[in-house]
Design a protein that fits this description.
CATH architecture of the largest domain: Roll
Distance between the termini: 30 Å
Number of strands: 8
Largest sheet: 8 strands, antiparallel
Number of domains: 2
Helix content: 25-40%
Structural class: alpha+beta
Radius of gyration: 22 Å
Strand content: 25-35%
CATH class of the largest domain: Mainly Beta
Order of helices and strands: HHEEEEHEEHEE
Shape: elongated
CATH topology of the largest domain: Pnp Oxidase, Chain A
Length: 180
């Protein structure tokens, strides 16, 4: 379906007829692409930004009243769940036990044109079956850090429970908000 642009409206007898035709095309567009489909296309674009920038993301926690940020490599599974592999005795795990609220930034390098900022809570996961599943999804070699594999007591996962994501696909685009 083609949506008429303003130049094609000059072929109509008057502005009212042009407005009516434009409205018909707009309604057809909404019927063909309902709001849910547009949101799904938009969230797919957002998760593409997250996946493309997952190797060099920034993860913020709180140490009492002091924000703490560090670079991490996130793991994005097939369900678009965001995971962070870490050492069970790391400072970030201790901080999350005290305050699970987090912020996670995925920013396209080198200019930051595309970005997605995730707000939510981190959940500490030590279940071996889940650790095995995520281990196989990682886009880097976790064995370099955890030679004993998923059963290792040192290997811990953080599941990011998303509350909202603020994102944009260019500097010129409007900031969009996704809430699951």
């Amino acid at each position: 379906m083609e949506i008429k642009d303003h130049k094609s409206l000059q072929f109509y007898k008057n502005e009212q007829q042009a407005a009516t035709v434009t409205m018909i095309y707009f309604v057809r567009f909404l019927i063909i692409y309902p709001r849910e489909a547009l949101i799904e296309m938009s969230s797919e674009k957002m998760f593409e930004i997250i996946k493309a920038n997952s190797m060099h993301a920034y993860f913020a926690t709180c140490d009492r009243d002091q924000p703490v940020i560090r670079s991490i490599s996130a793991i994005i599974d097939e369900d678009s769940t965001i995971w962070i592999a870490t050492f069970a005795n790391s400072r970030k795990v201790k901080q999350i036990k005290e305050n699970p609220k987090i912020c996670l930034a995925f920013i396209e390098q080198p200019n930051g044109d595309k970005s997605a900022i995730v707000y939510g809570k981190a959940e500490i996961v030590n279940d071996v079956e889940i650790k095995k599943k995520v281990w196989g999804t990682a886009n880097y070699n976790l064995a370099n850090y955890f030679p004993d594999g998923p059963p290792s007591k040192n290997f811990c996962l953080l599941r990011i429970n998303i509350e909202k994501i603020e994102w944009r696909d260019s500097w010129e685009s409007k900031l969009q908000v996704y809430q699951p």
